[in-house]
Amino acid sequence: MYLSKKDIQSMQKVERLNLINSLSGIKPANLIGTKDKNGNENLAIFSSVIHLGSNPALFGFILRPQGDVRRHTHENIISTEMYTINFVTTDFMKNAHYTSAKFDAKTNEFEKSKLTPSYIKEFDAPFVKESPIKMGLRFVEEIPIKSNGTTLMVGQVEHIIMPDESMHDNGHLDLGFFNVAGISGLNTYYSLTKKDRFPYVRKNFKLEDLKID
User: Fold this and answer.
1) Which one of 58, 100, 131, 190 is most buried, counting C-beta atoms within 10 A?
2) Model's pTM, two decimal places?
């Protein structure tokens, strides 16, 4: 099959949306937790979280165009400058996906999805108790993407919460051990399984030097 730019543009909307979203492969499934200044909790599923740097520890995620639909996650982050990123596992991916519904600002997605908010001292954004790996971030900047009206939201990690046995050999995480889920497209979920880990590649390495860890 070959599809040209013209072919892509002429596709039926939903078919095009599903195809193009799937072409980015398996993406992380994360729940972003926020709270507005009136104390209303918000929880939303995202599949666009990306690592931007380790020192300082920065992560970004993409917000779709604002348009006529209010983005409560964006509004809350701008007003409070705090939010959480929580890994979704296969154990509660159905609950996590339910947060994609367009609820109004006063609706508590934690209650709707039957997930549990949790807090730590001096950080007023809700974590997802059921998530094995979670981060608390402070808003740094937002970068508009002019070509399609989306926005890259950038935050710095201030808190990491995970089980004591999470890290192995210089900080590596085995996401498969925690049944972490991934997303393809907008609504297809996958389980992750660790296969191999290879050494850092030096220019004098041969292919045979890349021995399985």
Assistant:
1) 131
2) 0.92
